[in-house]
Amino acid sequence: MNKVEVKIGDITKEKVDAIVNAANSRLLGGGGVDGAIHRAAGPELLEACRQLGGCPTGEARLTRGYSLPARYVIHTVGPIWNGGGGGEPEQLASCYRNSFKIVEEEKLRSIAFPAIATGVYGYPMDRAAKVAVAAAKTYLEGGGRLERIVFVCFDQANRDAYDAVLACRFGRCRFGRCSHGRCRHGRCRSIGESPRNARVNGVYSRGCDRIYPEGLGRIFDRTDSTPTALGGLDRGWYEMRVVVKPSSGDPAHRAGNRRRR
Q1: 30 contacts 37 by C-beta, under 8 angstroms
Q2: 17, 34, 126, 163: the active-site residue
Q3: Any catalytic annotation for residue 163?
Q4: According to the model, what pLDDT value does residue 73 have?
């Protein structure tokens, strides 16, 4: 899916048809991405936003980009995270859907998104990335006109979150095969029988009966299930937590354990 990009950078410098502003409901500027976009666009943006009369959570509004490289700014208001039980995922998904709706209305060809709602609104980064990528995938599969969708991240951890979701959603997972085809950033609830010669986290070993990816950033030893830290996100979300049932004390299996520690 080469229309989707992930990068670390400054969204105000993106040369795209439109950038998305993670705004507040008053559309009068603020901190974080919102403040940076207003500063880069100049005072005309604030005046244009005043004419819009605000924006409810999940909806989107359009203004010109003024002094920005982007022609337009799409302002959308993400949800404040309250544990996920108050409709936050649907509200966040609505931010992306309504942004894509404006893209179609204005016949735009490229767009850049920040990590909406993950700043002061507190939306968990991994969950927000999952919503964002799912919305982009649905849009593109529905025949959307965009030729380029850029997710602009503010740091490496943010990028790792997007990379992991993109890998599984678009079939580029480095872990290998998810036999049921429902892998979501390394949290397969169950996975079928693995090949007898399995490659687990870069270690080629024989005698694996069943593999259970259950998370990220840690790996469980095959023999005693003790978690051994792998440096969190420093090694990327492709390093999944794994429990493997060994077969009859295969020597190659034990050698695999030693190499992995």
Answers
A1: no
A2: 34
A3: no
A4: 98
Query: What is the rounded average pLDDT of the residues 12-20?
Result: 98
How far apart are the C-alpha atoms of 201 and 100, rounded to whole Å? Answer: 37
258 CB-near residues (< 8 Å, 6+ apart): none
Three-class DSSP labels, the chain? CCCEEEEECCHHHCCCCEEEEEECCCCCCCCHHHHHHHHHHCHHHHHHHHCCCCCCCCCEEEEECCCCCCCEEEEEECCCCCCCCCCHHHHHHHHHHHHHHHHHHHCCCEEEECCCCCCCCCCCHHHHHHHHHHHHHHHHHCCCCCCEEEEEECCHHHHHHHHHHHHHHCCCCCCCCCCCCCCCCCCCCCCCECCCEEEECCEEEECEEEEEECCCCEEECCCCCCEEECCHHHHCCCCCCEEEEECCCCHHHHHHHHHHC
Q: Which has the closest alpha carbon to 257: 212, 249, 197, 233?
A: 249
**What is the pLDDT confidence band of residue 221, given thresholds at 50, 70 and 90?**
very low
Q: Are 129 and 147 in contact (CB under 8 A)?
A: no
**Confidence band, pLDDT 50/70/90 cuts, at residue 169:** low
CA distances from 4 to 134, 139, 146, 183 (A): 12, 11, 10, 19
Over residues 101-143, the pLDDT tens digits come to: 999 999 999 999 999 999 999 999 999 999 999 999 999 999 9
Residue 251 has which token pair? 């020597």
Distances, alpha carbon 81 to alpha carbons 39, 121, 238, in Å: 26, 6, 26
Whole-model pTM?
0.68
